[in-house]
Design a protein that fits this description.
By secondary structure, the chain is an all-alpha fold. It contains eleven helices and no strands. The radius of gyration is 18 Å and the shape is elongated. The model has no long low-confidence stretch (mean pLDDT 96).
């Protein structure tokens, strides 16, 4: 059985295989019906739990059903609708500004390239990767959220703290066909087993592959 010192490619294949076995239900936890709703939900998820976002978005999308509705809304109405997600003023501004571009420059359709998405207000690589991977099934990168960052560091897959550098390290290790699933798998494992404050190392399926295991 591969140890943490095993060749990187052999080790990463074992990590992916075991995580798939442990979390067969790993997927995007943000409820959405189309790429635009996913984009908005992902912006809302910054510094907020997916559970809270999923509580907010049904009413939010009922009130503002598409990009044009957000673009033409009174921003204070958006702010009040998303207040419980935190940082609501910045989030409302980013959502409305992105929605304006989507509504009037892209005829209401969320663009499907990394270059176009990251030009939208409030959309960096993490959000773009979520939309591209989940909505469009395009593997242009690997989502690096707090769970992915923590687990990548604990597993010795990166020594960096900057999300963009972590993403580059992971992209070099993980086969491209696994890029989309890999983030979901780490996120689910981070929530269920390798938590921030009290990781369950004895009960972890990656225990013998992890240099941080207690």
């Amino acid at each position: 059985m591969p140890e943490p010192s095993a060749p990187p490619q052999e080790r990463i294949h074992q990590i992916i295989r075991r995580l798939r076995s442990a979390h067969p239900d790993a997927c995007c936890a943000l409820n959405h019906r189309n790429p635009f709703e996913l984009l908005v939900a992902t912006i809302l998820s910054a510094q907020c739990t997916d559970e809270r976002v999923n509580q907010v978005t049904p009413e939010l999308f009922k009130k503002f059903p598409d990009a044009r509705a957000f673009a033409e809304a009174d921003r204070t109405d958006i702010e009040q609708a998303i207040r419980s997600t935190g940082f609501y003023r910045n989030k409302a501004r980013h959502i409305q500004e992105a929605a304006t571009v989507i509504a009037y420059d892209y005829d209401g359709q969320v663009p499907d390239t990394m270059e176009e998405l990251t030009r939208l207000p409030g959309v960096a690589r993490k959000t773009a990767n979520v939309v591209l991977g989940v909505a469009y099934h395009k593997a242009e990168g690997i989502v690096v959220d707090t769970h992915v960052k923590r687990l990548a560091q604990r597993l010795g897959l990166t020594s960096h703290k900057d999300p963009n550098k972590i993403e580059q390290d992971l992209m070099a290790l993980v086969p491209r066909e696994d890029w989309i699933d890999f983030a979901h798998l780490l996120i689910f494992h981070g929530r269920r087993v390798c938590t921030s404050r009290k990781p369950d190392c004895p009960g972890c399926i990656l225990n013998d592959l992890c240099p941080s295991a207690e």
